[in-house]
Amino acid sequence: MTIGVLKEIVGSKVGLVPAVVKKFIANGYVVVVEHKAGRNSYIANADFEAEGASICSRSEVFEKADILISYTSLSDEEMKQLRKGQIYISHFKPYIYKNVADKLKAQNVWAFSLDMIPRSSIAQSMDVLSSMSSIAGYKAVLRAADLLPRYLQMMITSAGSIKPAKVFVIGAGVAGLQAIATAKRLGAIVEAIDTRIETEDEVKSLGGKFLKVEGANQATDQGYGAVQSQEYIDKQRQMMFDAISHSDIVICTATVRGTKAPVIVTKEMVDTMRRGSVIVDLAADAGGNCEYSENNKTVVTANYVQIVGDSNLSDAAAVDASTLFANNVFNFLKYISTSELQLRTDLEEDEIFTSSCIARQI
């Protein structure tokens, strides 16, 4: 079986890194990599070749590969180059891009979306959302700190004392917890809120204060936040209004898979923040948690609050993000393949297989 690694159309990641290429070759795979596929992740062609991969043109990768790998999905035109029976592994976001599964089915291929893998113990090593969310939470705080015209930590100088900044994190999942930990390490005062009451201990263990709203619906079986009642949302909004108005930085991470991201931070709330404050919205590609958010844009309000809409902040750490994604791919392929490197068709009832498979060969 030949694995083909494509250069990304957008973004800085690469589907495999040399260390993982080496593991695949040791397991009997042949690996071909598109010319300069790793350039934006600071990986040279020679680094791939040193581990046994061959460097090819893009058309040659399409032609030779039994298994194609890219972090972001191909364009509609290039999808038409997929041939019957090929296996294509990517990060398709089918819950946002509703037509992608139909386009892949039309090519009669096997397509696996690693962002659809359930959050279970056995799937942890394959869970792309967790891998990327951890980086995004870390980078969100650094991005906000860079934009904020103030210190995050308390400073006592001969010229006077500076109070620590206040950071409010919405959502205490993987991204939110990493944001809390990063903000605390930088010396900020951190508060967080989440509909999942069970996250309270995790927030406190990282040094954050948990804002609790009674009456939340329980998390989903896969550990995601559940859709909440209007009564709960109203209570939550009232509590957050005060928290946001006193915050220097707000990090938004709340998503409900398969639906538009809930609008939690209203324009009215933002308008109460002091000038120079920063909001980073990691849910921007799903509609955003902030009413002002626009995906892939930084919006500046009339009172000079900056709202950064960026759902792909993991790209800011392309080297480590590529390494984690490559490991996710390796663990996933190992799970769904036989010892003869063929696709395991006996996994039709397996949750990891069925959740991630968005198109299958007929």
Can you describe this structure?
The chain has 362 residues and is of the alpha/beta class. The protein folds into two domains: 157 residues, NAD(P)-binding Rossmann-like Domain (Rossmann fold), CATH 3.40.50; 178 residues, Rossmann fold (3-Layer(aba) Sandwich), CATH 3.40.50. Helix content is 32%, strand content 17%. The chain has twelve helices and 16 strands.
State the strand order across the main sheet. Answer: 3-2-1-4-5-6-16
Indicate the CATH class of the largest domain.
Alpha Beta
The number of helical runs is: 12
For the sheet with most strands, the description reads: 7 strands, mixed
The pLDDT mean sits at: 93
Compact description:
The chain is built from 12 helices and 16 strands. By secondary structure, it is an alpha/beta fold. The protein is elongated.
Supply the key terms.
362 residues, alpha/beta, Rossmann fold, 2 domains, seven-stranded mixed sheet, 12 helices, elongated
Strand and helix layout:
Elements: E1 2-5, H1 18-26, E2 30-34, H2 45-50, E3 54-56, H3 58-64, E4 67-69, H4 76-79, E5 87-90, H5 100-106, E6 110-113, H6 128-147, E7 155-157, E8 160-162, E9 166-170, H7 174-185, E10 189-193, H8 200-205, E11 209-211, H9 230-245, E12 249-252, H10 267-270, E13 278-281, E14 297-300, E15 306-309, H11 318-336, H12 351-356, E16 357-359
Parallel strand pairs: 1-2, 1-4, 2-3, 4-5, 5-6, 9-10, 9-12, 10-11, 12-13, 13-15
Antiparallel strand pairs: 6-16, 7-8, 14-15
Helix pairs in contact: 1-11, 6-7, 6-11
